[in-house]
Structures are given as structure tokens and as C-alpha cells.
Specification:
The structure holds 2 protein chains of 2 kinds. Chain A is an alpha/beta fold. Chain A contains 10 helices and 14 strands. Chain A folds into 2 domains: 4-221, Rossmann fold, CATH 3.40.50; 225-303, Alpha-Beta Plaits (2-Layer Sandwich). In chain A, helix 3 packs parallel to helix 5, helix 4 (108-122) runs antiparallel to helix 5 (137-149) and helix 4 (108-122) packs antiparallel against helix 6 (167-182). Helices cover 37% and strands 27% of the residues of chain B. Chain B contains 9 helices and 10 strands. In chain B, strands 6-7-8-3-9-10 form a 6-stranded mixed beta sheet, with helices on both faces. In chain B, strands 2-1-4-5 form a 4-stranded antiparallel beta sheet. In chain B, helix 3 (97-107) crosses helix 4 (112-125) and helix 3 (97-107) packs parallel to helix 5. Classes of the chains: A alpha/beta, B alpha/beta. At the A-B interface, helix 5, helix 6, strand 12 and helix 10 of A face helix 6, helix 7 and helix 9 of B.
């Protein structure tokens, strides 16, 4: 039996369909990612899984129990961290952690181990004695996350836990999630950061209330049919504009200090030479590229 | 660099909260028309720095001028000469796009004539002309972000502060937004932007990276990568943040 089983689930607000007839399942013990921008429907789905919203049609089963019927039973095995998590602003960092550990009856020995791991990721140790209300925005988010992770539920549901968290801490946060996973917890996590998709075992790409793709990150990458190259040049924006006008090109996207260009078919050496010439040598280097999840997502957005 | 080509200048700018030093002797010069990226781990002092530069928070020590105005004595002039947009957008959901623009114009004390004359060009620039009468709650996040930028540009400020403007929007809208930032900079406006997306950091003309309130690095993305011997800004950032 899957830990979470979603069949033909739809959620409406008035006439607006926030989630449109989706199907997905989360296996026991896996880290499953809902990846997509704000407004894609991730939070509506998560709240429904956590028994906080009632599906308009379709069904959601958690460990075989229906979210619209077995509310108390589901809540007892599920840990949920909403997007806006409340901290006690007038308690210190340490007191907030202790409060949530008490609330979830975490044994003293366990909580010390976990606290150490959490401080490693959050870098909040030097700020233990500071009131939560006096932390910076990103640090508050990290403390909230730490409070949610101080106990180990059977199924952990996190709604955009890394929102506004800096890239170094995000990396360390995912390492903590893997520690929790090893303890046997199933984890469902949503994110708008495309680069976090590769941290999950399986993902669903969410856009506009629909699932545009589902599978392991590598399976989704395999759906990307076009030969993809990473191009660098002296003036990147001009390079992108030049390539957008070439007939052989499928798409062009800026990616930091390079342009990702997908082609209708594999280009040959002669073509590369021609392109160097026609861009007045603005094209400096090109290397074949395995698509990132962001490439896949951009492609799926265009093919509606 | 001549003085009147400088949009933002700080010298040993410092902010203390009690015994805690949030910003520690930071000196920067941002040129007019520059896209200046402002990076750092959570709690490094970015927001404190921005609040001082926007005239919202008095520094403890050091000097700073924004658009030629002194942050200690002329904070009201500064507020009139900057635009500010945060990740929270602060738009009214129950107003239409047009009404939000009118509202912000009113806040900045612009006359109806001026608002009307600028609105059309502005909506065109941010690509929202066709849906100007749509309720803000009914538009996607990517459009809200464009509207928020439009509202921040309405009073035609020479300097714009963007505090994590692209968090949560889809990858296509994120790229479209950066096209807008480039356009705005080409018009001669100075852009001061914070982000946690390292690919966006690469799009800035120059980057500063803070750690524990101090300015650790300041240069073009290319030179920073060369200086630290890294392939991308993500790796430069990790090295700086971990280099206590």
C-alpha cells in the first residue's frame, strides 16, 4: 500500500479550479517533491492531504484512510509544516525548539541529537539566546523549519520549507531531510526552486493546477527530446537573440553565465562554424548538456 | 568615476542593534544605470543595509548617500527618489491592475494627469496593457510581480531596490522579469537587487557578497569567479559563506 494515494483529485475555489483532476501516489519511505511556481496548486493539494481542505471531487487516501473521514487518525501520524509557520516571537531560539520538542513529547536524549543536527544546518547556534522576533526573515524560516523537524512523524509534509532560505543552508537542509528519511519517515515536500527537484527520489512538475510530468528526475529528463547545448559567448543576451532567429533552433533560454539552446536535430560541425561566423564570433564555446529539471519544466510549460 | 555618476555611496556604514553589529563598516559605490547584486546568507545584513539606504533606518556610524541625498538628514528626499519592491509585492488583491497603479500614484503624490500619462507606457512596458481592468487576485503570480515593479517605477525614481523580487515565480516569468530589469537599467535607472538564485546573480553587472555584516567580495561576476578560481557564482558564494 502507498502512503499517499490521490485519484482524480480536483479542488475549486468558486469557479477557479486550483487543482485539476490529478493522480499521484507517494510510496512508503520516499522523498517525493511537488515542484512548481506559486499559484500552481501545490498548497491546495497539500492542505487536502493534511485534512484541512475537503476535495471537490476525487479521493485522497493516507495509509488507506480517507482524508474526508478519518481526520483524527490521519493527523496522528502526519507532521505538517505550513508555508507560514508560527513561532513564538518573544521566546528565544532555544526556547522555541524546546517548546515544540515538549509539544511532540520528544525524549530528552533524542532531542539533543536532533538539535545538534539542526544547528549544523541552520547556523543558529550563536543566536540561541536571541528572541525569535529579532531574527532576520531567512533565519526565522530556518528556525520554523527546525521546530517542525524536531520530532519524527511517520509521514512528514512540508510546504515550501526552503522559501527565502539561502543556497548554502538549502543544501544542508536537504541533508537533514535524508537523515529523517533514513529513520523511516515518508516525506512529501513542495518547492518552487527547480534545482531542488534533484534532491527528491520522485517528483511531480506542477503548473497551472495540472501535473505536467511525474517520475524520477532522470525519467523526466529522458522526456526532453531535443539535443541540448550550453553556449557561452562574449555578450550573452545578444547570443540568445541571434540563436532565437536560427531556423534549426527549437528554444533558447538564459541560464546564468550561459545560454541553453535546444535544436530540432543534432547540429554538425559545419553548422557550428557558420553560427560562429554569423554571430561575429560572439559564440565562444558550446558543450552538449544533460537537461536540468528547469529545462524540462520550461519545455513542458510551452507544450500545453 | 565622477561624483555625479554615483547613485549610491557608502563609507564605513555601520548598524548596531545593542551589542550586535548587523552591518559592519561597509563601503560601496554603485554607478548610475548599474545592476548591482547584493548577496549573502540569511542574517548576513542585507535587509538592514537596504533599510538604511531607503531612509527607513538610521545608521549607527559611517556615511551614506542615495541619489545624492544624505541618509541621516535627507531621508524624505531619498524616499521620493527611490522605488522599492519586495518579495511580498504589497498589492491590493481587490483592486484592478489599473486601480493599483492609481493607488500607488496617489501615495507618491502624483497628479491624476501624470498618473494617466505614465500608466499606458508603464503597463505596456511590463506587458499588462491587455488585462489592465482585471482584478489583481485573478492574475498569476508572475503578472503580480510585473505589476509590483510597475508600481515601484510609477514616480519615475532614478534608483530601484528589489528585495528578492523573483522568489516563487515560474522559470519563464523569472527570465521575463530579468529582461525588464535590463530594459530599466538601459533607461539609465540604477537597480539594487537581492536574490537567492545564483543564476540571477550572474546577470548582475557587479556583485557584492556579505558575511556576518561585513562586505567580503565586490566585483563583476566574471572577475569574482576568476579571483576565487570557481566555475560559477554558486561555488563562489558557498566558499565565501563557509569561509569563517
Amino acid at each position: 500500500m502507498n502512503d499517499i494515494e490521490i485519484k482524480n483529485f480536483t479542488k475549486k475555489y468558486g469557479v477557479t479550479e486550483a487543482v485539476k483532476n490529478i493522480n499521484l501516489s507517494v510510496k512508503k519511505g520516499e522523498i517525493f517533491g511537488l515542484v512548481g511556481p506559486d499559484g500552481a496548486g501545490k498548497t491546495s493539494l497539500i492542505r487536502s492531504i493534511c485534512t484541512l481542505l475537503v476535495p471537490d471531487s476525487g479521493s485522497i487516501l493516507v495509509r488507506g484512510m480517507d482524508v474526508s473521514k478519518s481526520i483524527a487518525e490521519i493527523r496522528s501520524i502526519l507532521g505538517y509544516m505550513p508555508q507560514r509557520f508560527s513561532l513564538y516571537q518573544d521566546l528565544t531560539v532555544e526556547q522555541n525548539l524546546r517548546f515544540f520538542a515538549d509539544l511532540f513529547q520528544v525524549p530528552e536524549k533524542e532531542r539533543e541529537i536532533r538539535k545538534k543536527q539542526l544547528f549544523q544546518f541552520s547556523r543558529l547556534k550563536p543566536f540561541q539566546k536571541r528572541q525569535a522576533g529579532k531574527l532576520s526573515g531567512g533565519m526565522k524560516q530556518k528556525l520554523a523549519l527546525s521546530c517542525a523537524l524536531i520530532h519524527t512523524p511517520e509521514i512528514l509534509v512540508l510546504d515550501e520549507p526552503t522559501f527565502g532560505v539561502d543556497p548554502v543552508s538549502r543544501q544542508e537542509f536537504w541533508e537533514i531531510l535524508r537523515i529523517i528519511q533514513k529513520e523511516g519517515t515518508t516525506i512529501l515536500v513542495s518547492t518552487a526552486y527547480m534545482d531542488e527537484a534533484d534532491q527528491c527520489e520522485r517528483i511531480a512538475l506542477f503548473f497551472d493546477g495540472n501535473i505536467k510530468g511525474i517520475g524520477t528526475p532522470d525519467e523526466l529528463r529522458a522526456n526532453f527530446k531535443y539535443p541540448l547545448y550550453k553556449l557561452s559567448g562574449s555578450i550573452l543576451r545578444d547570443l540568445k537573440i541571434s540563436f532565437s532567429s536560427f531556423e534549426e533552433v527549437h528554444t533558447t533560454q538564459l541560464f546564468g553565465d550561459s545560454v541553453h539552446v535546444s535544436f530540432k536535430k543534432e547540429p554538425d560541425e559545419k553548422q557550428w562554424g557558420n553560427w560562429q561566423e554569423s554571430t561575429n564570433n560572439n559564440l565562444v564555446q558550446w558543450t552538449k548538456l544533460k537537461p536540468t529539471i528547469e529545462d524540462v519544466f520550461l519545455d513542458l510549460m510551452e507544450t500545453k | 568615476m565622477s561624483e555625479n555618476n554615483i547613485a549610491v555611496k557608502t563609507e564605513l556604514l555601520t548598524k548596531k542593534f545593542g551589542k550586535f553589529t548587523a552591518v559592519d563598516q561597509v563601503s560601496i559605490e554603485v554607478e548610475k544605470g548599474e545592476i548591482f547584486g547584493f548577496l549573502g546568507a540569511n542574517g548576513a545584513g542585507k535587509t538592514t543595509m537596504i533599510r538604511m539606504l531607503c531612509g527607513l533606518l538610521k545608521p549607527s556610524d559611517g556615511k551614506a548617500s542615495v541619489a545624492g541625498y544624505d541618509v541621516y538628514k535627507q531621508s524624505e528626499n531619498i524616499k521620493k527618489n527611490i522605488g522599492y519592491m519586495s518579495q511580498k509585492f504589497s498589492l491590493y488583491d481587490d483592486l484592478t491592475i489599473n486601480e493599483n497603479i492609481e493607488f500607488y500614484g496617489g501615495i507618491y503624490g502624483l497628479s491624476k494627469e501624470i498618473i494617466n500619462s505614465r500608466r499606458e507606457k508603464l503597463l505596456d512596458q511590463v506587458g499588462l496593457s491587455d488585462i489592465a481592468n482585471t482584478m489583481t487576485r485573478d492574475i498569476p503570480v508572475g503578472f503580480k510581480q510585473r505589476l509590483a515593479l510597475g508600481s515601484a517605477l510609477l514616480h519615475d525614481p532614478p534608483i530601484i531596490f528589489l528585495d528578492e523580487p523573483t522568489s516563487g515565480v515560474d522559470p519563464e516569468a523569472r527570465r521575463g522579469f530579468w529582461d525588464l530589469i535590463y530594459q530599466t537599467s538601459e533607461e539609465g535607472k540604477t537597480i539594487f537587487v537581492t536574490t537567492h538564485f545564483m543564476d540571477e546573480a550572474e546577470y548582475c553587472h557587479r556583485l557584492s557578497i556579505m558575511r556576518d555584516g561585513k562586505l567580503i567580495a565586490l566585483d563583476t561576476p566574471g572577475k569574482l569567479k576568476a579571483q576565487y578560481g570557481k566555475d560559477n557564482i554558486q561555488e563562489v558564494f558557498v566558499e565565501i559563506v563557509n569561509g569563517e
